[in-house]
Amino acid sequence: FSNQHLLIRFKLMLLIPPMCFVTFLFYLIFCNSSFSSLSSLRVRTFPKDSALLGRDTVRALMYYALKVWSDIAPLNFHEVAGSDADIQIDFTKADHDDGYPFDGPGGTVAHAFFPGERFTAGDTHFDDDEAWTFRSPDSHGMDLFAVAVHEFGHAIGLVHTSAMESIMRPYYQGPVGDPLKYDLPYEDKVRVWQLYGTREYLSPVLARDAPDRCTSHFDAVAQIRGEAFFFKGKYFWRLTRERHLVSLRPAQIHRFWRGLPPNLDSVDAVYERPGDHKIVFFKGLKYWVFKDNNVEEGYPRPISDFGLPSDGVDAAFVWLHNDKTYFFKDNQYWRYDDHLRRMDLGYPKDSTLWKGLPTHLDDAMRWSDGE
């Protein structure tokens, strides 16, 4: 996108139990910028008719809604009292002098401006005609924390998505639970990491011993959620579907996939399991299973669960032609059925059956075009 501002207008339908449809309009101002690593906020006005939400509660909810994003990205927000805050937060009604008037109860509930040079960049407005609530049943009003997390997603540069579990779906989805325990869906984490990176791998301290991606061979490669991951030592790089590096600096593996040992020095193989799309890591005689970036209970486990050799694996990938997982070790390979959780009969076989395969295989993966 250019630096010209683009107005995006969304008209959406929300089903409110039991059988009532309400039309929502969201207005955003877009430009191709992002916030710096330090941003200030100010709650300038508060809900006028809410007996449930005092000023301290509103300020706390705004803080925790922003903290959801700053906990996983190199963003830092602090509240200020003056008029120079990066994010000005207002509860207002009807025409409020930003060119995008609210329309009363049950219409536009809030809007936010994308980061950029515009004087309203980052500002977030809530319709004071709505019945704002907190910790109320789904059918009672609009949960302020849930809406704030969504709108602040826009304020830091995220657009709507159709992903089912995303907080950035383009309509109100109801309360999301305790602000102190709320964890962003994986889809939203990935999208904000693509804009800002993670806190860990943007730190120069963590990158001192990082390998050079241009001169290194890789320990493992994998396609996960349509993106290519390249592993070397205790680091990895990520390539988007458009084949762009998310960051020139690598991330630490154990900081991204929490549950791997902190002293992990490398991985042998990684693949995304067909069917449930969980991510499997192999190192030595152990393996771990992750749902998104959280390890499942009961891991690590021995690779003998797969019927694999006692000296580990060199490579693993899923072949879309049959939805089977192939493991390689030295000059042999195995074919595993992840749906049935068992090794196919007749394996291992000689890896020379794969024409053009090198003698010593570091890893293998399926590319985004299926090859």
Task: Explain what you see.
The chain has 371 residues and is α+β, with helices and mostly antiparallel strands. The protein has two domains: 6-194, Collagenase (Catalytic Domain) (3-Layer(aba) Sandwich); 209-353, Hemopexin (4 Propeller). Helices cover 12% and strands 29% of the residues. Strands 1-2-6-7-5-3-4 form a seven-stranded mixed sheet, covered by helices on one side. Strands 14, 15, 16, 17 and 18 form a five-stranded antiparallel sheet that branches. Strands 19, 20, 21, 22 and 23 form a five-stranded antiparallel sheet that branches. Helix 1 links the parallel strand 3 (39-43) and strand 4 (77-79). Helix 1 packs across helix 2 (144-155). It is elongated. The two termini are 31 Å apart. The model is unreliable at 1-33 and 201-207 (pLDDT under 50). Keywords: Calcium, Hydrolase, Membrane, Metal-binding, Metalloprotease, Protease, Repeat, Transmembrane, Transmembrane helix, Zinc, Zymogen.
CATH superfamily of the largest domain: Collagenase (Catalytic Domain)
Mean pLDDT: 78
Give the CATH architecture of the largest domain.
3-Layer(aba) Sandwich
Spatial shape: elongated
Number of helices: 4
CATH class of the largest domain: Alpha Beta
H and E order: EEEHEEEEEEHHEEEEHEEEEEEEEEE
Secondary-structure-derived class:
alpha+beta
Number of domains: 2
How many strands, what sense, and barrel or not for the largest sheet? Answer: 7 strands, mixed
Strand content: 25-35%
Number of separate strands? 23
CATH topology of the largest domain: Collagenase (Catalytic Domain)
**What's the arrangement of strands in the largest beta sheet?**
1-2-6-7-5-3-4
Low-confidence stretches: 1-33, 201-207
Helical proportion, percent range: 10-25%
Distance between the termini: 31 Å
Rg of Cα set: 24 Å
